[in-house]
Specification:
Blueprint lengths: L1 E3 L2 E5 L5 E7 L1 E7 L2 E7 L4 E5 L11 E7 L2 E6 L5 E5 L4 E7 L1 E3 L7 E5 L2 E5 L10 E2 L2 E4 L6 E5 L4 E5 L5 E7 L1 H13 L18 E3 L3
Antiparallel strand pairs: 1-2, 2-3, 4-5, 5-6, 7-8, 7-19, 8-9, 9-10, 11-12, 12-13, 13-14, 15-16, 16-17, 17-18
Length: 207
């Protein structure tokens, strides 16, 4: 690592420049058992292989976070969030106001305006987004609990976004409502698999 005019770059041991001297700092991250280099400039947060090859397009995003072999990124252009695959290919366009790396099996929790929902690991919206304060997967991993009215009422939707328990319940009663609905066979079973190992690294450049 070399410093030139208060900016850092990276040379090989043979003196070949592989990352230009444009960054305020470098950090090393281990992502899925591979060593990577994070470069932070005045306006972007980039990520490189140790060979100097960029993992995703430099100068395009001001934050990134690794999750399940994907990257949640924030665009420098519109300050909205999207998702890249591990090769840096866009699978979810940067159109969401937030994307969270939850441990839910359904994918990424995202928001657009007053609506919430999930984007799957292959970039598809699991169901049309719902107007609510929050959404989370239930303990049985088969349905979602939604919160409305300033978190005072709770309801349930299935993996197709179909409302199976209206938002008229208190939090301490919603799990019983879920079990009751399952017994009535109104729920749709899911075949999603869980992954107990999560490797998360991130950097946010405040702009």
């Amino acid at each position: 690592i070399v410093c030139r005019d208060s900016k850092y770059g990276l040379y090989t041991n043979k003196g070949v420049l592989i990352i230009p001297c444009e960054y305020n700092e470098f950090k090393f991250y281990t992502i899925e058992d591979r060593l990577t280099i994070g470069g932070v400039s005045d306006s972007s947060a980039d990520l490189f292989e140790t060979s100097g090859l960029p993992i995703f397009e430099p100068k395009k995003y001001n934050s990134w976070q690794s999750y399940y072999g994907h990257f949640i990124v924030r665009s420098n252009t519109n300050q909205l969030y999207g998702v890249l695959d591990k090769y840096g290919n866009m699978i979810v366009p940067c159109k969401y106001e937030s994307i969270k790396n939850t441990s839910d099996i359904a994918g990424f929790k995202a928001t657009i305006g007053k609506k919430v929902g999930y984007v799957t690991f292959d970039g598809q919206e699991l169901f049309p987004f719902i107007e609510a304060e929050d959404i989370k997967i239930a303990k049985n991993k088969k349905v979602f609990i939604i919160k409305q009215n300033d978190y005072k009422s709770y309801g349930v939707v299935d993996f197709n976004g179909r409302v199976v328990v209206p938002c008229k319940n208190k939090s301490d009663k919603i799990e019983k409502k879920i079990e009751s609905a399952i017994k009535r066979d109104t729920m749709i079973n899911s075949n999603y698999e869980t992954n107990s190992k999560i490797i998360t690294n991130s950097y946010t450049n405040k702009v």
